[in-house]
Amino acid sequence: MEAEVRPIRGREELEQCFDLWGTVFGEGRRFFQSRLDGDRAYDPSTTWVAVAAGDIVSAAQIFPFDARWGSGTVTVAGIGSVATRASHRGQGLALAVLNAQRAWLADQGVPLALLFARERAIPLYERAGYVRLPFGTTVAWSPDGAAARGGYRVRAAQPGDWPDIRAIYAAQLDHWPLGHVRSDAFWTDAVRWAQQAQPEGVWLVAEQAGRLAGYFFGEIPEGGSSGEAPIRLWEVVAHPEHPGAAEALVDDAHQRMGAPGDVRLSLPAGHILARGRAVAPGRHRGMWSLVNAAALMRAIGPVLMRRAEDAGMPALTLRTGPSDVRLAWAGGVRTLQGADLLQAVVMGIDGDQGLGALFPAATPFLWSLDQF
Fold first, then answer.
1. Among the ranges 132-141, 282-291, 340-349, which has the highest mean pLDDT value?
2. Which of 1, 17, 159, 244 has the fewest CB atoms lying closer than 10 Å?
3. Which helix (H) or strand (E) is 264 found in, with range?
4. Is residue 372 domain-resident?
5. Segments forming the whole domain that contains residue 22
6. Overall domain count for the chain
7. Residue pLDDT, tens place only, 206-246
8. Residues with Cβ within 8 Å of residue 17, at least 6 apart in sequence
9. Which residues contact 332 (CB under 8 A, 6 or more apart)?
10. Contact, 96 vs 128, CB < 8 A?
11. Could you tell me how many helices (H) and strands (E) the chain has, helices first?
């Protein structure tokens, strides 16, 4: 079928997207409308559609954000709400929308794109140039008393806690690559949307000696039984000086759900909450795409140069191709491309003396990527 792929034109087409998304995902249009109408930075050029016979039959949304990478920032295009009307599936329309978005993002100088995929949609996203990175684990969680020994008190978050919550998140950005650089508008708009769209969500804070040390936002099921009802962790962030606050928050959530035994936590490998506990392989729905390698190197190149100098790697040079980068210094030459380059940027490299100094392995404080 012939279809025109482009950004939306006007409010009427955006309203059609709300109807399409609400029908396809079963959330109802209000879920999607509240997200975009509540975003003061929303730009209609980020909503892409396939139009056939005058009707919108497929659509996808771009949620751009800046992410911290070392002392610099990288723009990431969060891709979401990818949907096609049931009567028009199997015709390559979603792939056409994703490819058009990606070409437009490359022209805009956006280095990376990120999306979250349902299992059945992974082949589609792989055809569109997205790859999964190996960071998913499942933890069997039960309280072990460590949090109580840390002297933390957990309570429900209150309006006066928001400045401290924001400060705790910002403090962690210095320790984690590709954490979301959150503006004042982001906190105001995103928190309001989360409260509207996820009314079952719970905000908790952990205190020690009267000072906030961490916070929790997630869903705590009621009356969970051993191993069956996982706690959904949307954010669990501890101040760098108080890693035990994360355990205190999850222990409290475990007690609130009344679970007598273990519950499952879905975490990235290496997460602070997984340390010292039984882990099993897990799945992570995050998929990344290298959109513009030259733009990526412009963003992170200065950081790489400083790291090379600090590590005693003189005369580092970077040469960028369409989908790869060649790194050369006095002691070696390496080329990173495709999934290897993405893994280096997103997760770091462990066990390689040269590249490890340039791309140090990350220790996640939240997820292995920051949900947009």
1. 340-349
2. 159
3. strand 263-267
4. no
5. 4-132
6. 3
7. 999 999 999 998 888 876 544 455 788 888 889 989 989 99
8. 8, 32, 47, 49, 56, 59, 61, 81
9. 354
10. no
11. 11, 18
- Tell me, yes or no, whether 371 lies in a domain: no
Work out the pLDDT band at 357, boundaries 50, 70, 90: very high
Residues 330 and 234 in one domain: no
Hey, is 56 helix, strand or coil? strand
DSSP-assigned beta bridge partners for residue 84 = 58
Q: Are residues 229 and 270 in the same domain?
A: yes
- Element containing residue 246 per DSSP (H, E): helix 244-256
Q: What is this structure's pTM?
A: 0.89
Q: Is there a contact between 283 and 136 (Cβ–Cβ < 8 Å)?
A: yes
Could you tell me the two tokens for 364? 């996640």
Helix (H) or strand (E) holding 48: strand 47-52
Residue 17 resides in a domain: yes
More confident residue, 274 or 242: 242
Quick check: is 368 in a domain?
no
Kindly state whether residues 122 and 160 are assigned to the same domain: no
Count CB-CB contacts under 10 A for residue 266: 18
Measured over the CA atoms of residue 288, residue 187, residue 104 and residue 18, the dihedral's sign is positive
Residue 212: which CATH number? Answer: 3.40.630.30
> Could you tell me if 331 and 259 lie in one domain?
no
